[in-house]
Amino acid sequence: MEIGIGLPNTVPGTEGRTLIDWARQAEAALGPDARAQADGYLHHYYGWLGDIAGMIAAGAAVSAEMVRSYAAAFKSAGCDEIIFVPTASSLDQIALLAEAVA
């Protein structure tokens, strides 16, 4: 299974597989204020969805253990790629995510 950080740069073929088989996205924030960072960003970004924004924020991976667990769960469900999207613009998020999936 491919584990990426950012956005995919290719479109999968159409050999009977669906997009969900190919890739999924998970928001992530790591570090000392991970939960607050994820909640703040995701409530703002998805605020137009009302209460659903809170559900999305609650699902953000906010620890290395959660990142690894999400990757394992998607892999066992047959997903070929998961893309972790940092909820912070700090470049340390990329290093923390890379460490979590190494």
Roughly how many Å is the radius of gyration? 14 Å
Proportion of residues in extended strands: 15-25%
Order of helices and strands: EHEHHHEH
Could you tell me how far the N terminus lies from the C terminus, measured between alpha carbons in angstroms?
Answer: 13 Å
**Number of separate helices:** 5
Per DSSP E runs of 2 or more residues, the count of β-strands stands at 3
Structural class: alpha/beta
> What ranges have pLDDT less than 50 throughout 5 or more consecutive residues?
4-11, 16-22
Shape: globular
- Percent of residues in helices comes to 40-55%
Count of all domains: 1
The average pLDDT score comes to 82
Strand order of the largest sheet: 1-3-2
Largest sheet: 3 strands, parallel
List keywords for this structure.
single chain; 16% strand; alpha/beta
Secondary-structure map:
Elements: E1 2-5, H1 19-22, E2 23-28, H2 34-45, H3 51-58, H4 64-76, E3 81-86, H5 92-101
Parallel strand pairs: 1-3, 2-3
Description:
The protein is of the alpha/beta class and 102 residues long. The chain has one domain (2-101). Helices cover 46% and strands 16% of the residues. It is built from 5 helices and 3 strands, in the order βαβαααβα. Strands 1-3-2 form a 3-stranded parallel beta sheet. The longest helix is centred in the last third of the chain and has 13 residues, at 64-76. It is globular, with a radius of gyration of 14 Å. The two termini are 13 Å apart. The model is unreliable at 4-11 and 16-22 (pLDDT under 50).
